[in-house]
Amino acid sequence: MRYFFDTEFLDDGYRITLISIGIVAEDGRTYYAELVSPRWHVFERHQWLAGNVQPHLKGAMRKTQEVANEIKEFVGQNPEFWAYVADYDWVALSQLYGSLVNRPVTWPCTALDTYQLPDFKRYVVQPEQEHNALSDAVALARSWEGWRAAWPDFPLPEHSSPREKS
Fold first, then answer.
1. How far apart are CA 16 and CA 150, in angstroms?
2. CATH class of this structure's domain 2-150
3. Rounded to 5 degrees, what are φ and ψ at 2?
4. pLDDT for 92-138, tens place per residue?
């Protein structure tokens, strides 16, 4: 199953600190979480985050391990992750499990990136609340649907885990 996701995060040049994550399953289910961070004092010093991300936070923050467990349950075995300009989002999601090798064994090594699909920008749907992780993930899923309808025969990359035991 495909999962479209977006994150909001603090990038201080040394570490990516996940603030919130939104995931939309291909079957329409959604997941959203905000994380407790020991570094909120740094968040407050970043004007862009304060002006663009903070207004959308609901304040229902949860612990990293709790969120990691919920996401693992939400996506199940062999998920196919998609994001828009996926690199930082993938690292932010993966760090919920510690180092990259600690991700669930059946998960892929990377997320697939809609930004790299041909002509994808023509199908981008604007989110209802930009910089709200769930709203952005919903918009990404809708964008994907529009793109796939226009490009039904475009071959997609294989998406499996080389770490999974056969």
1. 35
2. alpha beta
3. -85, 145
4. 999 999 987 889 999 998 999 999 999 999 999 999 999 999 999 99
